[in-house]
């Protein structure tokens, strides 16, 4: 019976992973896992749902971090403008061209750092240097999130980066 339960859990992980990553967490998946949770000896589906919730919260924190960085950058530009009023128009035009936070240039990307303990992740997903394989807009977002994720782990401790 344990072998059957492990086999069922293994295949359910693939199914659940596909549903969660393609459609997002829905009430149905949570309800089903809660109802049949006793069938999963390793509790992987429950861990997957928790990990996804944690990573969605991390994604919200990343978005707030990006907004804070944008605020800092705009404040710096504003302070520069107050000190050099006569050159203000020229500097703003130059800075706007080189603006690293431009919404138009950045692709909208959602990055989730999923735990390999409970998710079935292909070895092809473990990339040391994503810039070799992905377009620059995606690679930049991955790098920004990786930097944020590393900083948040060291700043807030390991409890936020499960």
Automatic annotation (TrEMBL):
InterPro entries: Cullin, Cullin_homology, Cullin_homology_sf. Coiled coil: none annotated. Belongs to the cullin family. It comes from Micrurus surinamensis. Residues 84-106 have a biased composition (Acidic residues). This is Cullin family profile domain-containing protein. The keyword Nucleotide-binding does not apply. Keywords: Ubl conjugation. The lineage of its organism: Eukaryota, Metazoa, Chordata, Craniata, Vertebrata.
């Amino acid at each position: 019976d344990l072998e059957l339960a492990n086999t069922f859990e293994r295949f359910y992980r693939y199914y659940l992973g596909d549903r969660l990553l393609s459609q997002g967490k829905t009430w149905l998946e949570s309800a089903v896992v809660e109802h049949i949770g006793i069938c999963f000896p390793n509790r992987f589906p429950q861990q997957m749902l928790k990990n996804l919730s944690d990573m969605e919260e991390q994604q919200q924190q990343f978005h707030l971090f990006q907004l804070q960085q944008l605020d800092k950058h705009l404040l710096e530009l504003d302070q520069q403008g107050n000190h050099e009023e006569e050159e203000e128009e020229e500097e703003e035009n130059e800075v706007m061209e080189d603006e690293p936070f431009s919404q138009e240039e950045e692709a909208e990307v959602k990055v989730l750092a999923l735990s390999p303990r409970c998710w079935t992740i292909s070895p092809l997903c473990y990339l040391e240097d994503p810039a070799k394989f992905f377009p620059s807009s995606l690679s930049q977002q991955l790098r920004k999130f990786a930097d944020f994720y590393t900083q948040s782990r060291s700043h807030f401790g390991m409890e936020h980066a499960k």
